[in-house]
Task: inverse folding
């Protein structure tokens, strides 16, 4: 065994705040397995399959990948007064996904008892959240620009909305809805449920990060890889601290800067 392999094994064997009591009753284990299947089927699992098919579709067209574009926050109606309602519904669905995961963690085969819960936010979550946003966001931007040049990514348009105050506010709401839904489901809920089923930490890391990468594949190969790396970092943070809110804050800040910054710059594909 190499030194690096030994270090990784020691890390994974070290105590973690994320140690929900293992479920031993057969009925509860079956219930958790079905919960995982159903929640992923209606949330990011299906999104991952759809994104992979979109990438396959894009890769089989004559146009090079870096000559194609994808819009993250596209208009949903040609009627100016109706589009904001559709945008708010989309953000509401994301919030409902995250809320469902919170409800299940607390009510269905509960994970944390006696008021000890990483689902409880704190002002002390803001600083580590901002630090994680900088750690992921800045290198991520460079990685994206290089990936476009190497034909590994589409040109991502962060917004197809106007630059009005109302539309910018909609972008901010969607950014934080994304952060809430993804980090609650992909990290807090999925990691906790897999640990309750006594899945080894190494496979927990793999499952969460690959899931995160899968539903970004519609943007290109590099988006999948980059989000797998982001997923590994975020699960590592959750494993070491037991806290999910810094991840929500980091994700919300990253998406806010991307969405609103794109608008303020007037929309620059490839940047």
Result:
């Amino acid at each position: 065994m190499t030194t690096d392999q030994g270090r990784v094994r020691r890390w994974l064997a070290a105590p973690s705040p994320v140690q929900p009591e293992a479920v031993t009753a057969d009925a509860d284990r079956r219930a958790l397995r079905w919960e995982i299947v159903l929640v992923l089927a209606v949330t990011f699992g299906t999104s991952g399959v759809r994104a992979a098919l979109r990438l396959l579709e894009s890769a089989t067209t004559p146009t090079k990948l870096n000559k194609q574009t994808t819009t993250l926050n596209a208009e949903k109606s040609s009627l100016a007064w109706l589009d904001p309602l559709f945008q708010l519904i989309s953000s509401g669905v994301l919030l409902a996904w995250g809320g469902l995961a919170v409800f299940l963690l607390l009510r269905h085969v509960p994970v944390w008892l006696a008021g000890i819960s990483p689902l409880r936010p704190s002002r002390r979550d803001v600083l580590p959240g901002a630090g994680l946003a900088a750690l992921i966001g800045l290198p991520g931007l460079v990685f994206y620009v290089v990936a476009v040049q190497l034909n590994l990514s589409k040109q991502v348009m962060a917004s197809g909305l106007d630059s009005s105050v109302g539309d910018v506010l909609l972008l901010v709401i969607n950014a934080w809805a994304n952060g809430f839904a993804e980090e609650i489901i992909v990290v807090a809920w999925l990691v906790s449920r897999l640990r309750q089923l006594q899945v080894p930490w190494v496979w927990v890391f793999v499952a969460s990060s690959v899931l995160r990468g899968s539903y970004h594949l519609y943007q290109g190969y590099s988006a999948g890889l980059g989000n797998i790396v982001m997923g590994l970092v975020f699960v590592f943070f959750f494993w070491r601290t037991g806290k999910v809110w810094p991840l929500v804050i980091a994700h919300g800040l990253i998406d806010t800067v991307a969405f609103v910054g794109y608008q303020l710059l007037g929309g620059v594909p490839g940047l």
Residues 165-196 form the longest helix (32 residues).
